[in-house]
């Protein structure tokens, strides 16, 4: 084994994952926590959070994640949102689709 | 007269509301006379020079009933001034109400919301939920001050 290989083996791999906390204030379940890779999309986190909170989209309601009050597109990555920090707080928002 | 449950539940849920508002540079003032009333000061990020004051009154008890939510012309001020209101879809400055399923006024206008998917959510921290809606609307859907 080369010195480089030995040194790589000795060093623990850096964890680049980001701690995500999703609040849904009206749920009795408490916040949703997950550690995700930066390339994870907000849509994937939203689905996991909705499952945690026991809610599902229907014809009258849509759900989205918000960050600092702003709507987060499902395609945005958690890494882009976190912008270098290791922890972000999101909110699940239930929206009434008015006809 | 505010019941004990309302007082205790508001005391428990208020810190999370303050924490959220601090993140947005907004503030919450308790009413000096009535512990079920709060005054919220908000500025839309698109127009930070504009300050809005919202009165949140848990008149039907907390957390079991939606609060009255009205914009005022100042803390402790009048609630019937159209120019104190922002233009946001679902907010009705002329009627002085918010026609969204998180206010007492909306449930009066839409009695069909009282039960079913729009029913008032009394679980978790509904105070935080209401304030998040107001903050989110200011960030996402603000269209200017009402004339």
How would you describe this protein?
Chain A is α+β, with helices and mostly antiparallel strands. Chain A has one domain: Roll (Ubiquitin-like (UB roll)). Helices cover 25% and strands 31% of the residues of chain A. Chain A is built from three helices and five strands. In chain A, strands 2-1-5-3-4 form a five-stranded mixed sheet. Chain A is elongated. The N and C termini of chain A lie far apart (68 Å). The model of chain A has no long low-confidence stretch (mean pLDDT 88). The radius of gyration of chain B is 14 Å and the shape is globular. In chain B, strands 1-2-3-4 form a four-stranded antiparallel sheet, with helices on one face. With 147 residues, chain B is an alpha+beta fold. The N and C termini of chain B lie far apart (36 Å). The longest helix of chain B is centred in the first third of the chain and has 20 residues. In chain B, 36% of the residues are buried.
List keywords for this structure.
heterodimer, A: 99 residues, alpha+beta, five-stranded mixed sheet, B: 147 residues, two-stranded antiparallel ribbon, 3 helices, 6 strands
